[in-house]
Design a protein that fits this description.
Length: about 90
């Protein structure tokens, strides 16, 4: 047994401090990994939302163009039908 008080205190505290330091490093790496993963997931989600909105806008524009063409065709057939002599 060590007879010196300060040596006993150091031998008592050093393992506790080392275990605490290891625990802190592990928790720090876990939190950093989680933060990085959330950041990357947010970027991917933003890209997917932008792509989805662009696809939806393109589909809506295509539907509007098709609707306008259909309306013109219907209006044209109505005009032609009204020009026909009635019996």
């Amino acid at each position: 047994m060590i007879e010196n008080f300060w040596a006993n205190a150091a031998y008592s505290l050093i393992p506790t401090i080392l275990i605490g330091l290891i625990f802190w490093l592990v928790m720090r790496s876990i939190f950093r990994a989680d933060r990085t993963e959330r950041r990357v997931y947010s970027q991917i989600e933003a890209e997917e939302r932008a792509r989805f909105e662009a696809d939806a806008a393109a589909a809506q524009n295509a539907a509007a163009e098709n609707g306008a063409a259909d309306s013109a065709a219907v209006a044209g057939s109505t005009i032609v039908a009204s020009r026909e002599p009635s019996a």
